[in-house]
Amino acid sequence: MRKVSVVIPIKNEEEKLAMILKEVKKLNPLEIITVINGSRDKSEEIAQAMECKVITYEEPLGHDVGRAIGAYYAKGDILLFLDGDILIPYEELYPFIDAIEQGHDIALNNLESIMNNKQRPHSVSVVKKVLNELFGYHGLSINSMVAVPHAISRLALQEINWRSLANPPLAQAIAMRKQMSIVAPGYVDVVSKNKIRPDIHIEKCSDSPYNRIEDVIFGDHLSAVHYLIREKGKRGGRPDKKHGTMLENVKRSKAAKTVMRSAVICDEENLDIDLLSDVIKTLNETNIEEVLVVLSSQDKTKIDRLRDLEVTLIPWFINDDMFLRRAIGAILASGESILFLEDRRTLPAEELERLFKEAENGADLVLLDEVHNLDEIHPIDQINSIKYFLNIAVKRPELLNNGLAEQPHIISRKALQKIGYSSILIPPMAYLKILELNLPVSIVQGNTKLICLNDAAKNENLVGDYIEGLSYLFSATNERGSFSDGNRKRKFLDELEVNKKL
To answer: Where are the beta strands (DSSP E) in 245-285?
Structure first.
């Protein structure tokens, strides 16, 4: 076995510390580095009595700073990270060491089973999953350097920089950006063993709907997304939009009559005309005064059928950009409330009526609730995950996985004029601007369940839209989305950095 350094940050852990260290010693490590910070109990004496390397700070270092400091002092070929309050049998730690010995760069605790449970995923699990997927590590699920135990090779540490360990999601993002080998070789139950600390697990932040530890974790993940954008551009390396300048040529006549209700249907080239006819007939049962169909192709048979249905045809014939067609329809529509439909399934007339009633009662954005996807899809899919992630990022957890991507929704004319029609080209951008302006949003419970269609190419474009939306959020806040940094004492990292250079 190569030389192993075990790193354990400790703050007031005398209750279990001796037992934890006793288990760790059974690994015969090169060293056990205990980073005692802000302790007022006998943790330091216990660590010294058990012949650990003890690094002491009188004040608390803040979240994960102790890990980074321990890594700075570590001399082993493999670094194994543990917490000072979770007792883990030494046998359960071997898989993480073995994985690094086998040539992997990072070995994580395999908590994937949490996402397979038949229950709504926790928000912390969602942000972990989304971060891995944004970097193309779909197989990692929710496995993360946030959780212990995990191990890292000396070479990997040199690549990602010891300082980055103070923000575990950022460290993992750097490792994924560098395409390191990251595996999850074993499961250790740390969830049930995690000590509940009221000051961080229950107490809410003053400017956040989340408790203190969640607020830090969400900020850490957003900073990792910010790193992705900094490295690969505002869409995180996803395909960029092609036709945005076309909107400059779309003008609505100033003399056009204004109506109460409009519907914009974005035609798809391979969409069956009979299905489209059914959608239009249902709309006509809902007192909609104007139906616009933005065509994707010059299909004469389809066009003739649509003319018979007395709808307004918009012949722009754009097949590969649904959201551009949506924006064109929005500009040309005459309604005070505009319903957008791209779905292949029609909604019952009574549900459409409920959407319009909400708009007419003052909501500027009306969405059909998609929360059922969180309860019925296990594990949750990529698109519902990233929609949920965005609502977490804007501190609107009650909105869950709802958004402007694929579902039928209504936007008021007033809202469109305020956010700009070009915002619709990037639905998450339009969504964020509506929330930023504090315009009223209504979520309507419906009987119709809308499932996201699994189209890999469209999903990749949509993921790019969400990353671009997050880029907008960063420009309006900061690289953490205005979330807390957890009182991290980075000055001590700066001091070590200076010492390293001397």
So the answer is: 259-266
CA distance linking residue 231 with residue 386, whole number of Å: 20
Cβ count within 10 A of residue 454: 10
Residue 453 has pLDDT above 60, yes or no: no
Checking DSSP bridges between strand 290-294 and strand 312-314, what pairing results, if any?
parallel
3-state secondary structure 4-36: EEEEEEECCCCCCHHHHHHHHHCCCCCEEEEEE
- Work out the average pLDDT over 475-492: 95
pLDDT in tens, 204-246: 767 789 989 999 999 999 999 999 999 999 999 998 876 667 7
Q: What is the pTM of this model?
A: 0.94
CB contact at 8 A, 117 and 179? no
DSSP assignment letter at 89: -
The 3-state DSSP class for residue 82 equals coil
What CA–CA distances, in Å, run from 319 to 42, 165, 295, 345, 491?
69, 46, 8, 19, 54
CB 40 within 8 A of CB 13: no
Q: Is the pLDDT of residue 168 over 90?
A: yes
